[in-house]
TrEMBL record, chains A, B:
UniProt xrefs under InterPro entries: D-isomer_2_OHA_DH_cat_dom, D-isomer_DH_NAD-bd, NAD(P)-bd_dom_sf
SUPFAM superfamilies (UniProt xref): Formate/glycerate dehydrogenase catalytic domain-like, NAD(P)-binding Rossmann-fold domains
Domain D-isomer specific 2-hydroxyacid dehydrogenase catalytic: 12-305
Keywords: NAD, Oxidoreductase
Record carries keyword Lipid biosynthesis: no
Domain of life: Bacteria
Record's protein name: 2-hydroxyacid dehydrogenase
Similarity comment text for this entry: Belongs to the D-isomer specific 2-hydroxyacid dehydrogenase family.
Taxonomy of the source species: Bacteria, Bacillati, Bacillota, Bacilli, Bacillales
Every D-isomer specific 2-hydroxyacid dehydrogenase NAD-binding domain range: 105-277
Length: 316, 316
């Protein structure tokens, strides 16, 4: 049994080798350093890479299990995996703490006018009339009710926000005051002071937010996107901000990443940009490896996994 | 019975007059607009002002009750109130939500490197390697265990921080994992990743933090001051930051307010300055008036108040 890692995993390498002494591990720095022999031998692939496309996996005749060290799997050849009966897992839970903390970094940056205080400090201006907006009592609408939304709702509860969730069927979820099905989105949007998108990219969510949806939001709304950039076209978002359909946006994901210098978002005042960083964390390799260890133990004895298995037809 | 307000109170004026139809209310814009007749007639003073000193109150022979619309009462002539049996209340609780939210605005601004992202946006730089530090698991030390610290601890609990409190005797307080008496401060400081001062100004807390205390903190510690500027001398804080005794500070209060343009803090990179704004809130007048209403009902029938009474010998 051979496991090929698409990344070097620091301390986790030793942990994996000690946990599975009978397994041979090969750790490569990135996809470019993987040779054909590595691929021919691989029974299992772990790690993540933006460059691992179908052609890459086609060189692996023995591949049975891909433990993807990221939450989003939309760059992977899911149909090819399905045809080959390759088991795919992701690590959707491990970014929940970091990402939910970023959501509140954004909300509080905005509500407490941290940029204004920063500018004042730079200009040696002491303005004691700045009045932060209080979070408690405001309504948070989360598009998605999975691991990350649940963690966001936990923080939002402590901040005494009202919490609404959107999921496919509208089924109730612990921690949410109200949940609605995706098809009722347009009726729910006007209620929200803060709209956070955490949805994965699927056929259902691609360009889900169009002009009409931004029109339905409050003009005072704050829009946060930490899900996928394709939830709305760049044109739609720029238009919504330009025309003041919403007050401000915090965007961590974009239709075309990385952003180019001439991206029109850079010309807007009412947007705050981060560079797809809300899932980054020095704990990630370790926590992803812990999930892999639990799954791989099960896989070695039963040929299947126990957690974070991706439904290849749904894409999450 | 006449009530003199040192501020105009917007919607709350009507509420007060309707709640107490037998009482005469006088609402002035500020202390400068109050005449001698206003003062001679006043049985009760409500509101707040930085200019209300002992001389101001000496013109009020009928004064029996001061409902101070702020948390800190250290600018008031407490001994004079004690000698005259004047009841003093503050509104220590009403700023708790706003101030606790600001504490997390600061922590997350720092932990998630929001300034770096902001600078990158200004420079049209897209750096997807920025890695936020996770809050969960870190230790928060709060100097104080009163209303505001309790509210901070409630948020910190949701963020899964370890929460330590310091109070006079070290008595246990709900929501804190550990509490220690003030005299053990030096032994507790090395444990903290984040130190938040919320203590009021008293003889015991004046210049409580000296070089030795900053030496005891972790070099990686974040220091936040939303209590009173006199917790440490300006010289001590500037020295601690200049010499890297701590990593960064968020300061909302200062020994000499307002900060002058030549204040040495403006020369430092590892400090973030806000202008004594963490207690500002558009809800404050309303919430302070609601406390006053509850107290004044009791005062009219019993000559005493039921909540937020200040111990004039302690100053809080």
């Amino acid at each position: 049994m051979k496991v090929l890692s698409l990344n070097r995993l620091k301390d986790s390498e030793q942990l994996l080798e000690e946990t599975f002494p009978e397994v041979e591990f090969v750790f490569r720095k990135n996809v470019d350093e993987i040779n054909e022999q590595d691929k021919r031998d691989a029974d299992v692939v772990i790690g993540y890479s933006g460059k691992a496309d179908q052609a890459f996996f086609e060189g692996m005749p023995n591949l049975k299990f891909v433990a993807w060290y990221a939450a989003g799997v939309n760059s992977l050849p899911l149909q090819y995996f399905a045809e080959r009966n390759i088991v795919l897992t992701n690590v959707s839970g491990i970014h929940a703490k970091q990402m939910s903390q970023f959501v509140f970094a954004y909300i509080l940056d905005d509500y407490k006018q941290m940029r204004v205080s920063r500018q004042n400090q730079d200009n040696k201006v002491y303005d004691s009339t700045i009045t932060g907006r209080r979070v408690d009592g405001d309504t948070l609408l989360i598009l998605g009710t999975g691991n990350i939304p649940k963690q966001i709702s936990k923080l939002a509860r402590a901040f005494e926000m009202k919490i609404i969730g959107i999921n496919t069927t509208g089924h109730e979820v612990d921690g949410f005051d109200e949940t609605y099905p995706l098809k009722e989105l347009d009726q729910v949007l006007p209620k929200a002071d803060v709209v956070v998108n955490v949805l994965p990219e699927t056929e259902e969510t691609y360009h889900l937010l169009e002009d009409k949806q931004f029109d339905a939001m409050k003009e005072t709304a704050l829009f946060i996107n930490i899900g996928r950039g394709t939830i709305a076209s760049e044109e739609t978002i720029v238009k919504a901000l330009n025309e003041g359909k919403i007050r401000h946006a915090y965007l961590d994901v974009f239709e075309k990443e990385p952003l180019s210098e001439d991206n029109p978002l850079y010309q807007l005042d009412n947007v705050s940009i981060t560079a797809h960083i809300t899932g980054n964390g020095k704990e990630n390799f370790k926590e992803a490896s812990q999930i892999f260890i639990r799954n791989f133990k099960h896989f070695l004895s039963n040929g299947d996994v126990i957690e974070k298995k991706v439904d290849l037809s749904k894409g999450y």
